[in-house]
Amino acid sequence: MTFEDISLMDGQQVAELVASCVEKARIEENDVITLMMPNTPEAIYLFYAASKIGATIHIIDYNMDKEDIEKQLKDQLGQ
Prior knowledge:
- By secondary structure, the protein is mostly helical.
- It has four helices and two strands, in the order ααβαβα.
- It has a two-stranded parallel sheet.
- α2 (11-24) crosses α3.
- It is flat, with a radius of gyration of 14 Å.
């Protein structure tokens, strides 16, 4: 499948494709996916994929400074 193919698909089909890829990456129910990217359609597809398999998305604002990002990650990991 090429990038052009994906651009012609509707959002639901792309989200299903992303969900399939997430499952192949061995992400499972109750896993946490940390996402550090701008708000894009790809982020929405990843939210859908995580929801479909029961995983959680942890969002980090990529504009944060290093110390705040480290704190976010430590808080997420329970450290």
